[in-house]
Amino acid sequence: MKRALFVTAGIIAASACVPTWAISLPAAGPAQPIPDASTTSSSLAPAESLAAGSASLVPLMATDGQANQMTTVDAPATSGGDVGKPIDDITFVRKATESAYKEVNSAKEAIPQLTQPELKRIAEMLVTDHSGANARLAKLADAKHWPVPPAPAAGAPPSGTANSNFDATWTAEMIAGHEKSVAMYRAEAQSGEDSDLRKYARETLPTIEHHLAELRRLQK
Fold first, then answer.
1. Residues near 29 by Cβ (< 8 Å), separated by ≥ 6?
2. Residue 1, SS3?
3. Averaged pLDDT, 129-154
């Protein structure tokens, strides 16, 4: 009897030593397996956040790319203001006539000052070709009852002496003037309102382009 009481007392004492969390553990539900370290939420969170952030950047980058492309496409091809853009026919007649007058007078003044024989030949060609083009344009404008600018008064004969610097300066000025004329004539030939003026621009454009090519060839 004493032995049975001793065993029972030992069991009660051992039970008193069991932690309370061990006793209450079944109340928390069945045991769950320990998750693998590679699939924990803490390791996935940065990757998911990065993926979400990258996805949100894609449409923004595409939008910026489209905006930059439109800016590039819509930018003007030349820096000469409205040169190269379609203008009304009467404005074209005025600008083309004034440009031809300027180039004819400049060529006439340059001939005695140029040192290169090839440049002298080009200057003489400019006088002949632009004078003829202006005469045809004036005849067309008169038939359409369009105003034509009067020819400027002749300037004093040049008093300077021939030098290589003058050759280079004059050539650069003629190139700049012919580049603007080519752009203006191309625009008129493509988009002019009057069919006769478009035809004149198409027929005259190759001559001006030839002048420009010759001037560029001799530029130093």
1. none
2. coil
3. 94
CB 151 within 8 A of CB 214: no
CB 185 within 8 A of CB 208: yes
Residue 115 near residue 63, CB atoms below 8 Å: no
Average pLDDT of the segment spanning 52-80: 39
Its pTM stands at 0.60
Contacts of 184 (CB under 8 A, 6+ apart): 83, 84, 87, 92, 95, 96, 99
pLDDT mean across residues, the chain: 73
Domains in the chain: boundaries: 95-149+163-218
The sign of the dihedral angle between the CA atoms of 89, 181, 113, 163 is positive
Domain 95-149+163-218 falls under CATH 3.40.50.620: no
Q: Which of 102, 88, 87, 190 is nearest to 149 (CA)?
A: 102
